[in-house]
Amino acid sequence: MAMALQVEIPTPTHLAVPTTLHVGSGKKWQPQWLNLDVDPLWRPDLLWDLNQPLPEDGQLVVQTERFGELVLGESIFDEIIAQDVLEHIRELTTAMRTLLHWLKPGGVLKVAVPYELSLGAWCDPTHVRAFNERSFEYYTNWSWYLGWRTHNFRLARMDFHPTDLGRQLAANGVANEEILRTPRAVEQIYVELVKQPLSEEARRATAEMLDRPRR
Fold first, then answer.
1. CA–CA distance, 175 with 140 (Å, rounded to integer)
2. Please, what's the largest Cα pairwise distance for the chain?
3. How many domains does the chain contain in total?
4. pLDDT (tens digit, 9 = 90+) per residue, 43-53?
């Protein structure tokens, strides 16, 4: 009597989950990162609209092709890349709250956005905003306005990427402040924001601001 051949079927395995989140990955999908996009056309790892707030418990449970089921909770990423994406998001404070939630303390949010006086700021009909050197104040120094009680961002770096006109003005000795106010002289801002816990003093001041009786 012939013996039945027993074949052991291996349990499916998934890749290790990256500690870098690539937001708005689109056609710039990167295999070494965890890719998030709102458009299923680009087959991102995570299909999520950052205009939407997270669930009340702060955990987003998603099924991914490469990594299996993921639970995205607080403080899970070392780095978040957001290049050419924040200008598309209408509910930006909601999105920034989510990205802050996902970053580990000390983690870095790396942002590239169009400068307000650039041609690129408004050539794309899906852009809903542009940025300048004051656009990140509410996520850093004024975070209590957003109701952030435990953490905010520290501005670690801000670079302005000039156009040919901007480089020419700089070569002629024009001051940076004047270049920033010259239309078409700066194309893009690059910013690095580091998640940091609020100091005890800042927590008390924030609580006083948020909890005081409204007139």
1. 26
2. 94
3. 1
4. 999 999 999 99
